[in-house]
Structures are given as structure tokens and as C-alpha cells.
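Quick one: CCT-beta from Denticeps clupeoides, C-alpha cells please.
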Amino acid sequence: MAPVNIFKQGADEEKAETARMSSFVGAIAIGDLVKSTLGPKGMRLENVNILIANTIFGSRVRVDSTAKVAEIEMAEKEKMKEKVERILKHGINCFINRQLIYNYPEQLFAAAGVMAIEHADFAGVERLALVTGGEITSTFDHPELVQLGHCKLIEEVMIGEDTLIHFSGVAMGEACTIVLRGATQQILDEAERSLHDALCVLAQTVKETRTVYGGGCSEMLMAKAVTDLANRTPGKEAVAMESFAKALRMLPTIIADNAGYDSADLVAQLRAAHQENKSTFGLDMSQGTIGDMAQLGITESFQVKRQVLLSAAEAAEMILRVDNIIKAAPRKRVPDHHPC
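--- reply ---
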């Protein structure tokens, strides 16, 4: 699966913004990488060669007199200049560093026409290296051994009050950033959970490519098979089987209720259709009727459907076991005639 990052910003209730979702398809966006040597007008580069680094400009020095401060500053500037020159030999036009870059190196990068982005968070640097095809480096003595990242366009974008740097045309074109914005933290949490569930279903579908018809079709098929078996089963087991079939038919009922339709009428129509051997029929919530799931192209992941069924059955079995334990008569206490 391609890496996906979720930014939760602007969740203050005072902003009273309506919840909305924006996605950069085929691109990634980093939230904290907003300081560039080229300024707002220069925040746009095409055909970019990116050097991603985790290096420190400058050092901490203790002196015993103020007279030595000027000498140390000059020596430090020369050291910074030498490092910048080694970085520029890589033939790049964008330099991204996890650490601070400081003013003097930024001036040198700007003079050379190189966009310098500093103080990137570690997770953002890791993602950038992954999706741009580059690697994180900390030494610059051998440019021929360093793998640079590449992308077609870098630009600064505004989403509400938040500033992001947008990397598009990256090497891993299937990578993307999804930005969630909402008026409250609860809205953001709900959107993130829904998105996480969708990504988990997608991951399971990639691993197990088999699918089943959706819209309650699979549940009605299973309920019909269980009911037919219950009709041929003598004894109390038939009652449990009929209850299991009834539980399966609750799934189409919940689907119809969530869509705001008359669930009793729709489920009755769907059950009659399956009795007529229309085994591919399910609920079409776009029209509020039943329809052929094969023609509509409504499918669900087989692996997810299987796990939902197993988990529900295990949970019901566990509840029944707990009920039996609670209903069981307590064990009679026998006096202990052999105390320790």
C-alpha cells in the first residue's frame, strides 16, 4: 500500500467551519515545511531534484572572552559556506533539511537559486524520501553515492488558514495526502475513523481479491440457506438456526434504515426476490428500491464480510456462555474440617 498521511488541523470550535475533505491525488503535502529561501513568490519549482538531509549547520562553542566571538563567527561562517558548496555539487534545486539551516546558509542557497526548506518533521522527511525516490543523507563528500529525489512540481498551497507545501508528480504516483478539516475535533475524529475503515477494507481487498455482492445480497443469501437448513433440522437446534437467519436479515434492514427508507417494505421485497431465485438482488439505495447488484456493480470484500460474520458469531457465542455461567446455581459451600 502507498503511504498515506492524515493532517488534523483547524479543529478549533470557535472557527465554526463546516467539515470538508480535500485530497491531493498523485501528490503529497507536508504541513510543517513552510519556510523557503525563495519567499512566497518563489514557492513554485518545476522538474525538481531534491536532496533530503538530516544535518546540523553550526555548532555550540563556549568562550572565555568576547574578543573571541568574532573569530568564532567567521570560522563558523566559513564552515557553513564549505558545507553549502558541497551540497550544491549534487546538482539540486531543492534542499530539505530536518534540522535548522540558519540565515547565512539560506542566503547562500538563495544566491545559487536553490529552494531551501528547513526544520521538517522526521515523519515528513521519511515520507518525502519514500515517495520521491530519494534517500536521507547526512554527509555530502560523495555526491555520486547519494540518491536524489525527484518530482515534477513543488508549490505552496493554502487550505483555509493552513499553509502546506505541495509535492506533485512524485516518483510513487499512487501516494497522496488527505487533508481533513472540520469545525470540531469530534467531526475530525469521525471522518478519520471512516477513512481508516475504508483504507483497511482496501488493504484487505488487495490481499484477498475475491468479492461478494453488496447491498445486503450476501446476507439474504446466507439467511435463505440457513432457513432452508433449519426447516429440515429437527429439535431445538432449528430454533437457534432460525434466530441466526433472522440476525443475518437485520443487515439489509440496517442499510435501509440508515438510508432513510422503509426497511420493512424493502427487506420484504428483497426476501421475496431471493425466494424467486434472484440470487444477485440487493438494495439499491440510490433509488430506494431493490436491484441487481451484478448490473449495478455493487460489491464488497469477501475477506471483510467473512471476518464480520465470524466476529459476530463469536461475540454472540461468548455472550451466551456468560449468560449460562450467571444462570448456573452457585456451588454449595462445604465446611472445611481440615484447616491449615
